[in-house]
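Here is one chain, start to finish.
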Amino acid sequence: MTPPKPEQPEKPEKPEKPEKPPMSAEDKVMLESMAGWIGKRGMTVPAVLFLESVKPLHFVGSQMLFFFEPMVHAFVRGKNYSRFAQLMEDGDALEQFLVMIEQAGAKKA
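Its structure:
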């Protein structure tokens, strides 16, 4: 006779990720103005190259933006810096920003 198998405890269900809020029109305007600034100065290729190369680390990069926020606010006023850092946590927002930069570069060319 074989001994009975011990019962395995049930695995707890993983909590569902909260849905991220969609990008607001205000956010799109902010990113488009930044993309336009990059495009006007002919920095499209370096900006896209840099952002594409660090895309896998977008969350770490956004946390670095939060870390440097107090120092940046000593020199620059405004809420856009904080909102930009929040948007860079989201890979979809980063992808949209890249598309905006490419479009701004194409308008200049």
